[in-house]
Amino acid sequence: SDYIKVCTNISLEQFKAELIATAIAQQLQVARAAKCFECRGLGCIRKQCPKGQKGNIRLSNACPHCQNKFQLSNQCWSKFDKHSNLL
Questions:
Q1: In angstroms, rounded to a whole number, what is the distance separating the alpha carbons of residues 40 and 57?
Q2: Least confidently predicted of 1-5, 22-26, 43-47
Q3: Which of 50, 65, 66, 85 is packed most tightly, with the most Cβ within 10 A?
Q4: Which helix (H) or strand (E) holds 3?
Q5: How distant, in Å, are the alpha carbons of 31, 56, 63, 67, 69 from that of 45?
Q6: Other C-beta atoms within 10 Å of 41: how many?
Q7: CB 58 within 8 A of CB 71
Q8: Integer distance in angstroms from the first to the last C-alpha of the chain?
Q9: DSSP calls for 24-77
Q10: pTM for this one?
């Protein structure tokens, strides 16, 4: 009965906020416990891993086929160049 008396004083919004805070805290603990697929360490993921940043490809030159700067030549399936001319 003491528990019921204590619970009656808690507002519904405060109860919801505490539930949400608990759920978020649990999700953060799960995220920190996950292993990174790049370095196999805890606390980072492959996309944000500092050890995996050196392997990124920078596209400095345009594709020789269509002149698109956002793809490599082995990824080019374009039938037209950047000026809409047929290749």
A1: 22
A2: 1-5
A3: 66
A4: helix 2-8
A5: 9, 15, 31, 34, 28
A6: 11
A7: no
A8: 82
A9: HHHHHHHHHHSBPTTT--BS--GGG-GGGGGGPPP--SPPTTT--TTS-GGG--
A10: 0.29
